[in-house]
Amino acid sequence: MTEATSQSIRLNDGNTIPAIGFGVFLIPADGSTYTAVKEALEVGYRHIDTAQAYFNEKEVGEAIKDSGIPREEIFVTSKLWIQDFPYETAKKTIDATLEKMGLEYLDLYLLHQPYGEVEGAWKALEEAQAEGKIKSIGVSNFTPNYWNRFVPQFNVIPAVNQVEFNPYFQQKPLREILEPLNVRIEAWAPLGQGIVHSLMSL
Question: How far apart, in whole angstroms, are the C-alpha atoms of residue 161 and residue 179?
Fold first, then answer.
């Protein structure tokens, strides 16, 4: 494990999250996800990020199982997609995800988008956290407007908000809202999605 992959950040619920994670967005569930996650773990990654909408949770779980690494040393994130946001559906989906991945708990579970029955879905996450099925709960793609619309209704403040965050998009208004609450921004596209700027084009 490298120094970079071993660094961690404390969340507002007392749990810690590895500073660098390996995401499996767009990796197909044809054995490719299994191979990618297995190799990522072998080179030192200890945070794997998947989602219901990626359709590869099962292969992530299989790779974790076959890695030989103790479960408590691997931080696993997944996300609930909007069609399963109704409260009762969300509760069933959390259990289905755990079963599909072969895990007793998730380290972090997020609402993937701020649309649909957000309040019901968040209630299901709060209850799953209280039951020990999820250690930390958070949201994803919540802009300042959506944060101010929904989060004041929550009983538990999200531990993270996973959003696009990079040198080209620094999310300053959002950071002003999250910092007083000690909510961590978790970056997707931290390298700017391959954006290249040259002096010739400026």
Answer: 11
Q: Distance from first CA to last CA of the chain, Å, rounded? A: 40
3-state secondary structure of 163: strand
- Give the pLDDT of residue 39: 98
CATH 3.40.50.300 assigned to 3-191: no
- Token pair listed for 170: 């620094």
Which residues fall within 8 angstroms of residue 2, CB to CB, at 6 or more apart?
A: 44
- Give pLDDT tens digits for 171-194: 899 999 999 999 999 987 666 665
Q: Which residues of the chain have pLDDT under 50?
A: 196-202
Model's pTM, two decimal places? Answer: 0.91
Instruction: Please state, in angstroms and rounded to a whole number, the distance separating the CA atoms of residues 48 and 38.
Output: 10
Q: Provide the annotated active-site residues.
A: 54
The identity of residue 176, as a single letter, is E
- State how far the Cα of 132 lies from the Cα of 106, in Å rounded to an integer: 9
